[in-house]
Design a protein that fits this description.
Largest sheet: none
Strand content: under 5%
Shape: globular
Distance between the termini: 27 Å
Helix content: over 70%
Oligomer: single chain
């Protein structure tokens, strides 16, 4: 892999990881259409470190407040993380079978589209009218959003789309739903990366090529988070809903 390849992979990672369009679903599509090989596990982990750093920088004030004035939100994040961790371990082999391709990915895109449109509808009706309390997400809402995150382990279903939309449907406002979605991603990304690193037979050496990919993922992730923040706050999730619907139809036709 060249530095150019690594930068392209990093940019794609930063965009698809955060926009509610399912990075895993796009990986299945790209593998089928262009014959793209899945990145080596070590490099994939490194790219996730880039997007994780983007989350940490973008939400640095929120993260700092978790250990001082907003411990209730920290508890909500801990509770919301449990469903995905259990599902990831219990259904690992079953979930991996989806990455071989198949119509399930197409259905996943369509489910994401419907999820986003439902979140848009309920957000317009209720989300803006309900003032945030305790960060906008309490323990009950965190469990429901956490279950949505667990469902999003299936390729084609966007994690950010599922969690943001579910937050809106639970009555959290747009900003709180957006913030909680990505704070909730931190422990999941850390756990998944640690597990992959532990089970990988190859070492995870940092080279100039891999670092260029990490930096690209970080930069693309920061820009994507900024753009997505504006889209969510102005209630335009339906853009991504339309995109995922088209992607789902394409996937059902070609896979």
């Amino acid at each position: 892999m060249t530095a150019v390849d690594a930068v392209i992979a990093g940019i794609l990672q930063g965009i698809t990881e955060f926009f509610p369009i399912s990075s895993s679903g796009h990986l299945v599509l790209l593998n089928h259409i262009f014959g793209f090989a899945e990145p080596q596990m070590a490099f994939d982990i490194q790219l996730h470190l880039g997007t994780l750093l983007a989350i940490a920088v973008f939400f640095r004030r929120d993260i700092a407040s978790l250990f001082t004035s907003r411990r209730g939100l920290l508890l909500a994040i801990a509770v919301g993380t449990i469903p995905a961790l259990i599902a990831g371990v219990a259904f690992k082999k079953y979930l991996e079978s989806f990455f071989a391709g198949g119509r399930a990915t197409g259905y996943g895109f369509i489910i994401t589209a419907l999820w986003l449109l439902a979140g848009q509808f309920y957000g317009d009706r209720f989300g803006v009218k309900r003032p945030p309390a305790g960060g906008g997400v309490d323990t009950r809402k965190a469990i429901i959003i956490g279950l949505a995150q667990a469902v999003a382990l299936v390729p084609g279903i966007s994690r950010s789309g599922a969690t943001i939309s579910t937050g809106l449907m639970c009555g959290a406002d747009r900003e709180a739903s957006f913030r909680f979605s990505f704070l909730l991603a931190i422990p999941v990304i850390l756990a998944a990366s640690a597990f992959e690193a532990f089970t990988s037979r190859n070492g995870m050496a940092f080279t100039a090529v891999s670092v260029s990919g990490i930096l690209a993922a970080f930069a693309a992730g920061l820009i994507t988070l900024k753009i997505l923040s504006g889209i969510v706050k102005t209630g335009r999730l339906y853009y991504f809903g339309a995109y995922c619907l088209i992607a789902g139809i394409i996937a059902l036709v070609i896979l």
